[in-house]
Amino acid sequence: MLTTSRRKTIYRLTPYLFVAFPLLIYLIWVIGPMLYTFYLSLTDWDGISDMNFIRLDNYRRLFRDRIFFTAFFNNIKWIVSFITVPIVCGLVLAMILNRSVPGAKVFKAIFFFPMVLSFVVMGLIWSWMYQPDNGIINSVLRLIGLGVLAQGWLSEPDLVIWSIIFVGIWRQVGYVMLLYLAGLQSVNTDLVDASKVDGANGWQSFGHVIFPQLAPITVVVVVISIIDSLRAFDLVYVMTRGGPFNSSQVLASFMYNEAFWNYRMGYGASISVILFMISLLFIFMYLIRIFRTESRA
Amino acid sequence: MTGKKIWGMTIAIIVLFALGVYAGGQKAPAEGPAEKQILIYNSNWSDAKYRIADETVVEMFQAENPNVKVIHSIIADEDFKAAIRAYLQASPPPDVLTWYAGNRMRFFVSKNLILDISDVFEQEGWKDDMPPGFVALSTLDEKQYFVPTNWYWWAVYYKKSIFQKLGLEPPKTWDEFMEVCATIKGDGISPLTIGTKWRWTTGAWMDYLNMRVNGPEFHISLCDGEESYADTQVKKVFNDVWAPMLEKEYFIPDAPAYTWQEAINLMVTGKAAMYLMGQFLETAWPEEMKDDLDFFQFPIIDPSVPIGEDAPTDGLFVPAGTANPELAKKFLAFSGSVKGQEVWVKQLGRMATHKGVDSSLYTPEQRKGNELINKADFIAQFYDRDTTPPMADKGMDAFMEFWANPDDANEILGRLDEQRKDLFDKN
Amino acid sequence: MVKSRYFRSPARVILFAIIFFFALIWLVPVLASLVTSIRTYDDLLINGFFAVPRKIVFTNFKEAWILGKINIYLVNSFRITMPALVLMLFFSSLTAYALARFEFKGNRLIYLIYVGGMLLPFQVLLLPVFRLNGALGIYNTHIGLIAFHTAFQLGFCTFVLRNYMLTVPSGILEAARIDGCSEFRIYGQIMLPLTLPAMAALGTLEFTWIFNDYLWAIVLLRTSELFPVNAGLAVLQGQWRMDWSVIVAGALLAAIPTILVFIFLQRYFIEGLTLGSNK
């Protein structure tokens, strides 16, 4: 049998053994490259020529760049939309479909389907739906007499980003619903029943019993929503490439454009760094909350 | 769940995993049978018909050289453009790559990334067999780097039935063109369709209007960053020629909502009459309406100005770091030869760069296109191939902004010129 | 009968009607895809994108499958996704267990590193990782892609699993410890089974992400024969002409594995249900 002191050493070493290898992989393929990108943002590299160290020039140029600010605010719009609509809808759907609704499985599949279809195709189909002339949306609006609302959904600069965000939401709701469904499994139904016995109505038992138990999942969902908003790229890329003239640009697509289309890798790297800093801001807020609640526990 | 079930699942997963690793661990099929030489060829001919033509050329080459195996990868064009720098820096890089003439090629040459293939030109006698314009496109500092394999023309395509109905003839001068537009507009049809979602279609209008008003030399100078976008000559193009067209609504509304291809729908359904477009429009046009399509040269605005036309040329080059220079050059020689080029002519209606290609192979239409370009005093490659990528990006953004706000031309051009100075270091 | 039991109250009926209505709306783009995939290119161009098909063809599927090589790409997607999935779930659960159950120096720091990396806009890593894989000799191989996906997803997976593991009452684990179980056994036989619902949900999400990955495939792979399904689909997007119906048909074919996975894992959730209540 192991002696207690040996046992203790093993116990102390164990966590390190557990984390060592995964951490190594992570450092090599994620953290290392990330640091390299920080470095890259201080150069004027174009992917081929020599790298010249130009210090903060990229950042100076960035803050004079109109597109940067457009992209930044578009991301903000995306974040605000994503942490409200999909969460509410996803939660509602999860709550409803958690009971034995006839055809629940089918409904779940339907709402989840958008996640499954290639974004290339989704971008294509939605672009067709948005077409001012033949598109389904405008056609239906005209059919029911609301033709005045028909717009150039993807051609009007002020409207474009919202049209794209809408597709993102359409896609995200199924996602969020899935996460909440998973979370609802771990909700203690005894407590809910107990609260009902105590005379709580639906809303009260939801607000006081169910929702708090969903807190960890909600945190995850909010974090995912914010990540996805900041990462938003594929829909923008497929539907408009950030156009018309950059009105629907988001930071990630702006970065891709500069780095891979205009071959301004250094400049693109600086945009990534900014994007990362913004993400970091949110994560700090979240971590501070968590550490506080955990130290209280 | 019982412990047994857990282990059962784990084992199942591990088995799947092992299979995956075994299968996934296989490298790219780059090792053929030992005797065969390998040629790695990456191309961006991803359209269905073009791909077939590309594969035909490869097949023919392999038939002539049975000891060679060509590993042929076709990559979507957008991804290809983004990945090409990665290809060029891989070790080893692919042996042959498709690409475009013009600034795009010159850039890589200046970075010593492309193999000098002047010897292939000598050997094949291309300096005599190819029109000087094409040799010039492939040359930098007296050396050749690029094999032009085919080209196509740009023109104003029109729907014959609409012209017939309104009793119109293809216009030759600008005034005639404006009259045609007015007549068509009067009939409730949009004179011109265009899909500007991906922006580049506006570049065509920039090219032609600028070349017709100010001459091709000025235009190329502008693309090279030597002229100012805020120059009065440029402003004249925007304010006096382009803006009036937009204000008179000669283009379809909501152009940015359509890709170039989707805009064809409006022409097909008779809601628009004309489209300034490259010859590849014909491959995207519906089969059953083939006879309703014809084209004419972009009208002349100022007869005293030399005629410039867009005739983008596609071809191949060899990365400087290739592992098989001799084999790669052989492939290039084949692709540029009469046999190789005939594939493009026959299957796609493209134009060959080799004079030796039998002109009887050309359809009447191809001959018409050929004539059009032969009449030109100067051949341009298209805005986004004649200027640097970042400049093209900013330029096209500016054209799009102008499209939405034709009154702000001067301001937009002013800003664009600031960017030009920045990008070309002309501060 | 379930039906009659469910529709007890008018509120329930209304609720069902609302869900039904929304489901229909949700389906519109999907139905549009299905219809587009059985139309011809000329039909789409002449009659518009939402018209009733003049001709119904199934050749698009065949074309996508063979000419478009979807069959090869699908296999590639599996070859890449399965190992990556197993590896990332394994590694991240190991780490999550340590982070959730042990107090040790560096616990917070390591958690921070994973969380930070999770929020990284992945485009940031494109070039460095490309060069890294080249230097390691795994450029243009599936292993290179697997390695990257595994590493990159560790951030998110560790984050989710660690939070989930924190909710597992420590009582059971303590009991096992006292009983003399090795940590690894506790991890394998107690913690893992308890985290199965989270891993299943995580697995589904990760599967869809990696299976449908596009950007990394085209950066880290050069030979189109190795492409996973979305990158392969993109090849169908021509330089000039986009063969709409073939691409949509290809995309539908490509979606089948993910749908199947989802259907399978739905059952898993139910198993997880009973698991969770047998504390």
Short note summarizing the structure:
Chain A has helices at residues 4-40, 57-62, 66-82, 85-98, 104-116, 119-129, 136-143, 157-185, 189-197, 202-213, 215-231, 234-239, 251-261, 265-296. Chain A is an all-alpha fold.
Show the helix and strand layout.
The complex is a heterotrimer of chains A (297), B (427) and C (279).
Chain A: H1 4-40, H2 57-62, H3 66-82, H4 85-98, H5 104-116, H6 119-129, H7 136-143, H8 157-185, H9 189-197, H10 202-213, H11 215-231, H12 234-239, H13 251-261, H14 265-296
Helix pairs in contact in A: 3-8, 3-11, 4-8, 5-8, 8-11, 9-10, 11-14, 13-14
Chain B: H1 3-24, E1 37-43, H2 48-64, E2 68-74, H3 77-89, E3 96-100, H4 103-110, H5 118-124, H6 126-129, H7 132-138, E4 139-140, E5 143-144, E6 147-151, E7 154-159, H8 160-166, H9 174-186, E8 190-192, H10 200-214, H11 216-223, H12 232-247, H13 264-268, E9 272-278, H14 281-284, E10 293-296, E11 308-310, E12 313-317, H15 325-336, H16 338-348, H17 364-374, E13 378-380, H18 383-386, H19 389-404, H20 409-423
Parallel strand pairs in B: 1-2, 1-3, 8-9, 11-13
Antiparallel strand pairs in B: 3-12, 4-5, 6-12, 7-9, 7-10
Helix pairs in contact in B: 2-16, 10-11, 10-12, 10-19, 19-20
Chain C: H1 2-6, H2 10-37, H3 41-47, H4 59-66, H5 70-101, H6 107-118, H7 126-136, H8 142-166, H9 170-178, H10 183-211, H11 215-220, H12 229-235, H13 244-277
Helix pairs in contact in C: 2-13, 4-13, 5-8, 5-10, 5-12, 6-8, 8-10, 9-10, 10-13, 12-13
Characterization of this structure:
The complex is a heterotrimer of chains A (297), B (427) and C (279). Chain A is mainly alpha-helical. Chain A has a single domain (66-296), classed as MetI-like fold (Orthogonal Bundle), CATH 1.10.3720. Helix content of chain A is 75%, strand content 0%. Chain A has helices spanning 4-40, 57-62, 66-82, 85-98, 104-116, 119-129, 136-143, 157-185, 189-197, 202-213, 215-231, 234-239, 251-261, 265-296. In chain A, helix 3 packs parallel to helix 8. Chain B is α/β, with parallel strands linked by helices and 427 residues long. Chain B folds into two domains: 15-151 and 313-373, Periplasmic binding protein-like II (D-Maltodextrin-Binding Protein, domain 2, 3-Layer(aba) Sandwich); 154-310 and 388-423, 3-Layer(aba) Sandwich (D-Maltodextrin-Binding Protein, domain 2), CATH 3.40.190. In chain B, 50% of the residues lie in helices and 14% in strands. Chain B has helices at residues 3-24, 48-64, 77-89, 103-110, 118-124, 126-129, 132-138, 160-166, 174-186, 200-214, 216-223, 232-247, 264-268, 281-284, 325-336, 338-348, 364-374, 383-386, 389-404, 409-423; strands spanning 37-43, 68-74, 96-100, 139-140, 143-144, 147-151, 154-159, 190-192, 272-278, 293-296, 308-310, 313-317, 378-380. Chain B has a five-stranded mixed beta sheet, with helices on both faces. A four-stranded mixed beta sheet of chain B has the order 8-9-7-10. In chain B, strand 1 (37-43), helix 2 and strand 2 form a beta-alpha-beta unit. Chain B starts with a helix and ends with a helix. The model of chain B is unreliable at 21-33 (pLDDT under 50). Chain C is mostly helical. Chain C folds into two domains: 2-61, no CATH class; 63-275, Orthogonal Bundle (MetI-like fold), CATH 1.10.3720.10. Helix content of chain C is 76%, strand content 0%. The longest helix of chain C is centred in the last third of the chain and has 34 residues, at 244-277. Chain C is flat and about 75 Å long. Chains in contact: A-B, A-C, B-C. Chains A and C meet through helix 1, helix 4, helix 5, helix 6 and helix 8 of A and helix 1, helix 2, helix 5, helix 6 and helix 7 of C.
